[in-house]
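Retry 2 of 3 after timeout on previous attempt. Resubmitting structure tokens to design endpoint.
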């Protein structure tokens, strides 16, 4: 019995039109009967379909070659598809014209192969990763900024509470000055403006502070600059160090001047909200007393004549 096409096929001997939307999946069905069972081969625009199917997982044949399956429609799949059906008794060739519908832009995209699709995916993933990194960066900046703001606020609180005001009423004669230094008030008469101070070389450093040589204009009403030793907190200090320096300043103010001590000459406190507190004291040209005594002792020993000993 010669082969014939079943009515549920979407190909016919007169030809059919299959209209598909771009990127949508579709199939061409060529259901046939005949005895002996007919063999089916496919042609696209007169060429054997094998060339299209080979190494292409977007197009496949199934159901004894009766269905030609497309995973998604792209413009390259447009054309005339002939279903070549034959057995010993006869031969028929129903066909269908496939038309892919889509916009001009889509038309361009339709030419994208699988590797181009992969490229699109890679670009989108990279873009997402970059956005996430930028977003994290912004969050880190905001957190750091807030932290800095908090430190500034802490400093401000310290300045207000410990430096300017003090709490003279709470002073207790039974306690040492060191124990209650922070409730002593600051004396504004010691304040020196930043523009009057010129910083020089470092003279030394202590546990939490460092000492620089500095020139100060207009100190004690003097026209010529005065050479002073300027004490400040070390780099990367925290509020504990600043508080210790504030206490040192207050004790010096409270002690007053004396011939036998290194006297306080002034202080620069107006930038304390930025963690900047400078204490100006008399400059000792021989520096540290202990080192001076050790040096003098060594010189003295060298001067003694070993013969007279
Ligand atoms: N008035 C000054 N004149 C010259 N050099 C000074 C003066 N004050 C300090 N220095 C130098 O700076 C160093 C550190 O001074 P600082 O007063 O901080 O010493 P410290 O009392 O040992 O330290 P800290 O009190 O921080 O533990 C001194 O060892 C000295 O060399």
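Retry 2 succeeded. Sequence:
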């Amino acid at each position: 019995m010669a082969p014939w096409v079943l009515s549920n096929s979407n190909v016919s001997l007169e030809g059919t039109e299959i209209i598909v939307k771009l990127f949508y999946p579709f199939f061409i069905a060529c259901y046939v009967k005949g005895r002996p069972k007919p063999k089916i081969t496919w042609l696209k625009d007169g060429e054997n379909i094998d060339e299209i199917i080979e190494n292409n997982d977007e197009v496949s044949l199934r159901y004894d070659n009766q269905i030609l399956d497309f995973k998604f429609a792209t413009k390259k799949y447009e054309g005339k598809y002939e279903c070549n059906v034959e057995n010993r008794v006869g031969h028929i060739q129903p066909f269908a014209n496939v038309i892919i519908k889509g916009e001009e832009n889509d038309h361009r995209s339709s030419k994208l192969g699988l590797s181009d699709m992969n490229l699109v995916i890679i670009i989108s993933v990279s873009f997402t990763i970059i956005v996430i990194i930028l977003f994290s960066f912004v969050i880190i900046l905001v957190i750091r900024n807030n932290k800095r703001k908090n430190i500034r606020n802490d400093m401000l609180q310290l300045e207000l509470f410990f430096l300017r005001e003090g709490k003279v009423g709470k002073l207790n004669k039974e306690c040492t000055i060191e124990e209650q230094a922070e409730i002593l008030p600051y004396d504004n008469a010691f304040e020196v403006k930043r523009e009057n101070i010129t910083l020089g070389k470092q003279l030394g450093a202590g546990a939490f502070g460092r000492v620089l040589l500095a020139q100060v204009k207009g100190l004690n009403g003097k026209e010529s600059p005065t050479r002073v030793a300027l004490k400040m907190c070390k780099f990367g200090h925290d509020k504990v160090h600043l508080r210790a320096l504030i206490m040192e300043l207050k004790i010096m103010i409270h002690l007053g001047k004396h011939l036998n001590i290194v006297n306080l000459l002034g202080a620069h406190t107006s930038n304390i909200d930025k963690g900047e507190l400078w204490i100006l004291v008399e400059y000792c040209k021989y520096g540290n007393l202990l080192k001076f005594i050790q040096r003098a002792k060594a010189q003295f020993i060298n001067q003694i004549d070993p013969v007279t000993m």
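Attempt log closed. The CA atoms of residues 6 and 231 lie 102 Å apart.
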